[in-house]
Please model this.
Amino acid sequence: MSRVRLPFPLRIAIFYTILGVLWITLSDRLVFYLFPNAAILTVVHTYKGLVFIFMTSLLLYALLKREVEIRTQAEQNYQNIVKNAVVGFFQAGLDGRFINVNPAMAGIFGYDAPEQMLHEVTHFTDQILLDAVERQHMVELLNGVGAVNNYECRIHRRDGQTAWTSVTVRLVRDQNGKTLYFEGFVQDITGRKHTDEIEKAMFEIAQAVISTRSLDELYAFIHSALAEIIPAENFYIALYDRDDNLLTFPYFVDQFDQPASPKRPGRGLTEYVLRSEAPLLASPEVFKDLIERGEVEMIGVDSIDWLGVPLRIGERVIGVMVVQSYTEETRYGAEERDIMNFISAQVALAIERKRAESAQQESEARYRGLVDNSPIGILVYCDDLVVFANSSFYKMLGMERPEQVLGRLFTDFIHPDQLPKTLERSNRLLQGQPVQYPVENVYVQLDGASVPAEVVAVSTTYQGRPAVQVMLTDLRERQSAQRALQRQFREMSVLHEVSEACATVADLDNLFTKVTQIIARALYPDNCGVILVNAAEQVWYSHPSYHGVDRETQFLRHQLSEGVIGKMIASARPIRVGDVRSVADFLGSTAGVLSEMAVPVFVDGQIFAAINAESRQPDAFSEHDERLLTTIADSLATAIQKILLLHNEQLLRRQAELLREATLALSSPLDLNTRLEVILDKLSLFASFDSASIILEDLDDMLIVAGRGFPEGVEVVGTRMQYTDKWIELIQLQQPIVFPDAQADPRFVPIPGTEYIRGWMSIPLVAYDRVIGFINLDSRQPDAYTEAQAALIQTFANQAAVAIENARLYEAEQRRRKDNARLLDELQINTFELSMAYDKTLEGWARALEIRDRETSGHTRRVTELTIRLARRFGINDEEIPHLRRGVLLHDIGKMGIPDSILKKTGPLTSEEWGEMRRHPQYAFDLLHPIAYLRPALDIPYCHHEKWDGSGYPRGLKGEDIPLPARIFAVVDVWDALLHERPYRKAWSLSETLAHIKRLSGSAFDPEVVKVFLELVEVLD
Model:
């Protein structure tokens, strides 16, 4: 129970009353005993009264002096606390001027000393609060409730900068309730606020890859997130395309400059950052120096500060992010540069506190008010007993009332391990010896829990006796904040490492392994890794790199609905399980797991994989862990998609190379048997097989003309086969057939000795829109072939069919030449027939090109006839007409070099695809020029896309520099194409076509050719 301290006047009155009663009672008895004589007794009574007055005067003097010393000491204690406080303290009068500030307060506001701040600041609310609304709000709170606790607000510093503080203010009133002055504490929380803003911005930007619907939305979101941290009214993002050497500005917000158009990199500040690959803070001085050195040129409106940072993916810079200022009120420095540089690489973050008590009468009340409201714990002990403790101290130690502290040994609250050093420091203070402070000490709560604290102690007196005053700052919050910062730094490092891995690793296995190693090392050391989801087989299983998994469970495959992973797949959302013992079908990767967290990895809207973490501690994963793992999963998803696209591109490129290699191999030997062997050789480039055969039509049935890989003793070459339903179906569809298991398909009738065949695929040989045979691939394994393989081989088979037909034509021609070599007349006939055969071959090529390019049937025949008629009107003689005819037949022969993915694309072509398409005239020249027989026919294949005004390709010829046959054919080709329906459009009417031809006269077409053509069309019509 605490002692009740009586007011000093009352104590004097009580003391005087007791002393007077004792004096009168005891002294009278003693005098009557010693001096029975009445005369002497009268004299003695007189002197006894004088002695009483003298003694009581001395005693009153001693008591008053003692009281003054106590009050003086209390005032000194108050001044020590204020001066040594680690947070800002102030007192301000009702006129708003500061009465008193401590050094910490002056330092927070950028003043060199308290006196400087007292002299310069005219009103404390104008200095403390940056925002007028906040200022009015605080005044209303003070007038209403008399105090404001932990009010977070922005302040002006003396140098013009702003900072965030936590303010505690109260009104100090006298005994009648009249307000005397303001009193409060200010704590700088700028670091925590700044960290929180960066962390929030980083997290929100990472989430925006999913939440935003377009790049424009994402750019705007980045702008708004950055503007929460630094001034970013003028902001733009520039992206650089290295292939096209083009700089674009997809997002541009500026109060003066207009959005820039795409351009080639020049000598601007943006291009300088691209070249240097380093951040640039271009103040007017830096900008002037760069101009003088010739590094940059003046572009647009001149800004005051220009701040740009490179946008980097791995070692490659893809663009620049820029903010700029046009006013002196907004200036950028190293801090803004570092923030932007940090956010540009990937994602960011966090911290805060209270105090005081009063002294006797006015100074004691002020002292106690300061101490009781202080967020710093304060206690005073004398003779090792606690004689004073403020509320922060006993709350710090988990107590509810001061009585639980007062009167106890101060050592009761010191951790035993720290007791020797604490006693040593205490003894040295009491002996007047110097002690180095602050120090860290460990206190203990009533329940035995440890409380780390930063301690500052000073020697003092208590009621005239030596004492020690201790001020404690609870380090738990600081240490927690430090741990949070460390974790945030670790998490940012993890995100950076994951981002770097996602940007640089080129295959999935290495990517999964790298990501697992990163998160296992830095975040979840128990168990973690990548879970793969196979939707086709309806199973999930852990990747071999999964960290911490038991060997017996490492390669197990589970149904999609099983375990915590199954629940995540079903909900398509992250899942956290605090106690896996509550999950009936829990599947642990190792013994002792108590909690689990799984986050899905979406690729093209489907769950491709998951990142899973397990712990041997219950409730080990928080919402923060979930957000962090979701961010990693998003980065992983983007990398997976990039790798899959890259692999698909590589596969398509490889397939194109294989097709080109196989097609070139078919162009060399002319005899049929050699070409059949080449076809069997090249089949292994596209698919593995145990045996393969080639079947060609032969009169009314089919004949196996070539085979490979059949068992010894099984002769299939020369075997004749009837047209069964299976073959008729292939002929009608002109598409491959794949049997997953030939033995289980009733359509399959094996040749004796080939009962081993399980997986089977047949590809029709289509030449000139007619099936002339089949290529068969056999495998001993079921499900050996896929539709994708069949489609690829079909492309090769189309080329092979043309090669076979050409070989047949060639062999037939050879036989005719041999049989008729004896007679000159027959030789002349054969020569003519050979020429016709070449022309027929060219016609066959033209038909094949029509089929491949999806031209209307008969297009080549029609344009050939019309071109020849128009050419005769221009005086082209009969000797030149055959070359003209061959040129028309071969006008699109160059498209053989164009990939089907471009030639047969149904949608619009990209700029790269158009570039490839425009190379086909050059391909035609490269193919035909070495053939002397066809060289005179080159004008049309090589020049029919040149235009009269010079805007055509491939050489950009103009006017009469374009060969006349090409100028004639260009008009006829467009005429026939427009009049006939194509797969991708309807046919035009005659009037529409005539109007189009006339409109292009003088630009695309030779005006004279158009004039003569229209006359010819009128005659024909």
Notes: The two ends are 124 Å apart (CA to CA). The chain has 32 helices and 29 strands. The longest strand covers residues 450-462.
